[in-house]
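Input set for joint prediction.
Command: fold jointly, output tokens.
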Amino acid sequence: MTAALGKDLVGLEHLSADQIRLILDTAEPFKEVSERPIKKVPALRGKTIVNLFFEASTRTRISFEFAEKRLSADTVNVAASGSSVSKGETLVDTAKNLEAMRIDMVVIRHGSSGAAQFLGHRIASNVINAGDGKHEHPTQGLLDILTLRDRFGRIAGLKVAICGDVLHSRVARSNIWGLTKLGAEVAVCGPPTLLPRGIASLGVTILPRIEDAIAWADALNVLRLQLERMQTGFIPSLREYNRVFGVTRERLARAPKDLLILHPGPMNRGVEIDSDVADGEHSVILPQVTNGVAVRMAVLYLLAGGRAAPAQAARGDEA
Amino acid sequence: MPTRTQLLDDRAMSRALVRMASEIVERCGGTDDLVLVGIQRRGVELADRLKRLIDAAERVDIPSGKLDITLYRDDLQMIGPRPVVGETSLPDLDGRSVVIVDDVLYTGRTVRAALDEVADFGRPRRVLLCVLVDRGGRELPIQADVVGTAVSLTARDRVDVLVSELDGRDTVELTRGDA
Amino acid sequence: MKPILVRGGRVIDPSRGADDVADVLLAGGTIEAVGRNIGVPDDATVIEAAGRVVAPGLIDLHTHLREPGQEDLETIATGAMAAVAGGFTAVCAMPNTDPVCDNQGVVGFVVSQAQRAARARVYPIGAISLGQKGQQLAEFGELVGAGAVAVSDDGKPVMSSHLMRTALEYARVFGIPVADHCEDMALAEGGAMHEGIVSTRLGLKGIPAAAEEIMVARDILLAELTGGHVHLCHMSTRGSVALIRRAKDMHLRVTSEACPHHFTLTHEACEGYDTNAKMNPPLREAEDREAIRGALRDGTIDVIATDHAPHHYDAKEREFDDAPNGIIGLETALPLAITELVGSGLLTLPELILRMSTAPARTFNLPGGTLATGAPADLVVIDPDVEWEIRPEAFHSKSRNTPFAARRVRGRAETTIVRGAIAYQRV
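tokens >
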């Protein structure tokens, strides 16, 4: 009947195109729930969800929290800090403690790639990856794809350029997996110091300059450039990055078609993207945020699924 | 061996709907504050037909909407895999006479879910229930105000309402289980 | 001690180019005779070795025995036991202990602990620099006097070319090799696995092959400059192999080793973030693995060493980034070598014994590696054909961190004799 998801959502790399489409389709009715006067449905009533954030993140955590509360779940936020070594409590122990408290679902953001999978293998609760190291940020990838689908009506054949610090970006990886599985053409664009080795083997083209990306793409997903990239020598300065790679109004004006501009946020205005672009008519940055809540509601809803055998009740022909 | 019989053919269905449409208007004392809300799935198509009948008879354009009750089901934690959630879109319900339309009334749980969901959208003046088939077997204290046809069935029997918009033909069929 | 007659086995002695069925008689701690139909002395123990391979005991130039300082992971006694269980009659112990083996006191301690254990011989390797801090030379003379056979800062590279140069020159006084862990830290810092398509997919910072090759090239140039003997630890890349080949062609005093995991696995073993596939240098690409195998065949790489690195279960039960590097190897080296190198037809058994026994002895100028008359009675009886499954819970090592659990392999040591006494007998 449906391409059901497993216990956890760790990334998009190992999902099938059908599973990704299932999540996107399920997000549609949840968009409507957020427009109601009473923004709540009882679907996850009585479920306990822990937001386990080892890295500070306001927007992702709040988005998940709204998604959870709008499904009537009980949520607890845990802001842990740093790695197992510096914290003094290992991730294994944290996992076991959560399980002992009979948590239904854990949303985890952690600085180490593989942390979500590590947790998912050790506890029976559903685990949702809200970003693990540089590996994946699946709900961000999904909401980006949903936003593209809203505007273009399709993903297959769409040309999407992911621009910026791809090397350190889990958002980029999730987008690459999700978009290529749904048939989009994906390119990455950034200075060679910020492109990972062998990235082409994931099925993407490498565009050397931002002008090339703007000339080619239907949509740009502009990644945040972090200050420490300059401090650790990947680029000489933020100013130079903006001059050479920034998405500016002048560059966009030369685009052959109306480009859609996405950004996972938070934005460094004037670095990777200029304010007049971020606030301009091509930007879908705010719809991305709206879709984020719907996508997260869909993921929580699908993962919290019943475990009994399918019943005729699902047929819907009885009242 | 289960036996399959036709309870209503397309013409009988059509006649029932005509009667139900006029009953609705009568029960609500007119169409001034009338809103029809169809429950996904086939309740939506039936609500559309009732709306067209009422609009034609009364020369009005009454508001209507559709309601998916999946997220309000009381057995959501038990069924799986996850059922697909259909579209919900409702006009303003505050102070209106809301008529919920569904194809079959059986245990009453779907209507209970619909009432909970409607309450999250607004505060109707009153809510009425209109169904094409009332098959008995209630598990909750719910009754229909406007009924197309009533039969008394056991748990082994099933009623299927097919509508041309979705299934290619109009019919109500009855499958009686083994005795 | 009673004499031992090892009867009827296929005796492989690369030091004499010998490979035939013969008996070996051990008496008084040395090889007394090798030949056919040697008479059995009255009080001798007889070991029937028909269908087995009889070889000089294996010698491992690179192990971490964790004592002093981390005795919960391994001790010299348990490590020496694991060694003989793996067919090794001698191992060299790296100095990155706590305290570091940079003075005669610690060297002496390692020597005496090994004597008490009375299993495999343990030769300490002293540190190049005090505390392995990479600044001041340790007292090589004192270290050698107390029993050290080489110096190394392994665990860490010698980043300062000046220090490496002086170490190579000074080591010439004592005729010992300087063993370097080749890793350019500026390139490798923070890396958790090989930099390549797998690290890109997993989102882990990678260590490029160049990080090793830069230091290999530097060490070769310094060997040329100083005339010293540099021994390159755990080689892992095809670029390193190419550099070493040129150095050998130029007859420089450059020797090197490769570990079983680098000729068996590739970076794909890190999929799923398996921390038992995390080591330094990391597992590389298939072409690197092929190059390492070819280098062991043509002698570009002189020896097979284990880099046996015990870690606690808890330490490896961590996020990949935080897990420590290293796997144990004493009890898996021989079966992996037989399965992967001999089983694939790349090496013959005599060539393998050369790489694991005779060549290690020559490289570090150690006794053993030979069954010549008068040589120490260090010998191993190997069953080269038995097929079995690796079960870490049966290991003699204290630690279990290996990626080879449940792997089906061929060949293992049956009996290991050290100083003319049976140190290990498989039951």
